[in-house]
Amino acid sequence: MSFLGLGGGSGGQHGSSQINSQAIDVAVAELDMITDIFNRVVSSCHTKCINQRYMEGDLLKGESVCIDRCVSKFFEVNKKVGERMQQMGGASQAAGGAG
To answer: Given this model, what pLDDT does residue 98 score?
Structure first.
């Protein structure tokens, strides 16, 4: 799958090698969003799970388990919030269209 419409699939532009600027904007926005989520996960889970004093070069077992749980919870909550926002958006569209 190509975000820029340059993939070898038959669903792309017919014979055109121009990059759709709207597709680039969407890809850049998605990359920014993913980078932001990654940075928030790292910051949050590092603060919660990693001791301020680095005693060893590797993670301790407790730190590793904490990070696994923290990341899992972060994405589970992120998923639930996204689903809830979609429901609210759908309900507001339905209410707006019924009036």
So the answer is: 62
Q: Is 5 left (phi over 0), alpha (psi -120 to 50) or beta?
A: left
**Cβ contacts of residue 49 below 8 Å, gap of 6+?**
63, 66, 67, 70
The angle that helices 61-98 and 21-49 make with each other, rounded to 10 degrees, is 140
Query: Looking at residue 54, what is its pLDDT?
Result: 83
Q: What is the pTM of this model?
A: 0.64
Distance CA 59, CA 99 (A): 57
More confident residue, 18 or 64: 64
Question: What DSSP state is assigned to residue 21?
Answer: H
Cβ-proximal residues to 59 (8 Å cutoff; 6+ apart), any chain: 50, 67
**Measured between alpha carbons, how far is 48 from 71 in angstroms, rounded to an integer?**
11
